[in-house]
Amino acid sequence: MWNESDYDDDDTHAVVVVYDEIISLNVKFWVYLFVLIPSIICSLISLGHVIFNRVLRTALHNHVIVVVLFIGLFNTVTIYPWMLFFFRHQGVWYRSAIFCTIWAFIDWGLYFTQTMLFAWATIERHILIFHSNWLATKRKRFLLHYLPLILLLIYCLTFYIIVSFFPSCENYFNDTYMICAAFCFTNTYGLYMWDAVVHQVLPNVIIVVCSTGLLIRVVCRKYPMRRLFYSRKYRKMTIQLLSFSLLYLLFDFPLSLMNLMYLCGLSPDVCTTFYEYLLFFNYLMIPMLPFACIISTPGLKLKVKTFIS
Quick check: keyword Ribonucleoprotein in the entry (predicted)? Predict the structure, then answer.
């Protein structure tokens, strides 16, 4: 998610944050590199653990998580190495407009796509644990499980492909910044407000509310259902969801709120130092997701220990 200041003009309503470089490029390079390499390894192990195990592959609660991990892996093998190259060369890297557009699409579009998908996962987890009878038939599974996932993917990818590659206005390009392209739809206040609220803030609110609600329901559920919720299967499903949700709460939610505050009129000069730190930690979220998957899945822990040893 870009935060550079030279993408604005007199009419733009985009989030504009002006600051000196507080966290050095060298620090960013080594921190992200330290996390990135084991993250890619853990992603491959996590995805292989599910994909090559028929029972896990057909389990409904794994489907959204697998898609989120796939998107995260795609990010970590594309824009994160590009970021490291940019940091290593101290920001000197001349790139084409199409390359900048692809980078912005992955950084912005795919990031919010996986956020919205996980927000749906937090809603669906309530159905899987507390109302599994809603998914008893193939028709119900299609309507309540597969269809929402398909529609969310189609909607998000269509929206961001259009604003990235087929905009009705001219996107901005500035080769001196890491994210060297910015979407011109941010000039349209209503459209950018829709993006900020629906694609950024709302999914995070859903994640926080539904994850907290799931924890409360599992802990406070009375007998005779207690044995169901403390069974190994549902305990795993709950721990996995809460592990992922914690990362969104810590690394994504604060930045989304700050972006909304800037959009609603907060001066770009306010909290710029805090904003850069939020952005720095926000880029750690996707590489951290595979670790959350490993930690919350006992079988995966053993595989990782075996791989390391």
Answer: no
For residues 278 and 271, is the Cβ–Cβ distance under 8 A?
Answer: no
Q: At what angle do helices 285-295 and 232-251 cross, to 10 degrees?
A: 160
Taking the whole predicted model, whether its pTM rises above 0.70 is answered as yes
- Structure-token match 């599910």, residue found: 50
Task: Give residue-wise pLDDT tens across range 34-79.
Answer: 999 999 999 998 999 889 988 888 999 999 999 999 999 999 999 9
Per DSSP, 264 falls in state: T
Q: Of 241, 207, 209, 242, which is closest to residue 112 (Cα–Cα)?
A: 207
Residue that is written with structure tokens 């080769």 in the block: 175
Residue type, 149: L
Q: Are 194 and 18 in contact (CB under 8 A)?
A: no
Render pLDDT for 247-304 as a digit per residue (tens, 0 to 9). Answer: 999 999 999 888 888 888 887 777 888 888 999 999 999 999 999 988 887 667 666 6
Cis? peptide before 268, omega within 30° of 0: no
With tokens 């595989």, the residue in question is: 303
- 3-state secondary structure (DSSP) of residue 172: strand
- Which of 271, 259, 265, 261 lies closest to 19 in space, CA to CA? 271
**CB proximity list for 95: less than 8 A, separation 6 or greater:** 103, 175, 180
Where exactly are the structural domains of the chain?
25-308
Could you give the C-alpha distances from 9 to 6, 91, 104, 172, in angstroms and in order?
A: 8, 23, 19, 10
Cβ neighbours for 178, distance < 8 A, ≥ 6 positions apart: 2, 4, 83, 86, 91
Using CA atoms, how far apart are residues 25 and 107, in angstroms rounded to an integer?
Answer: 18
Question: How buried is 173 (Cβ within 10 angstroms: 0-12 exposed, 13-18 middle, 19+ buried)?
Answer: middle
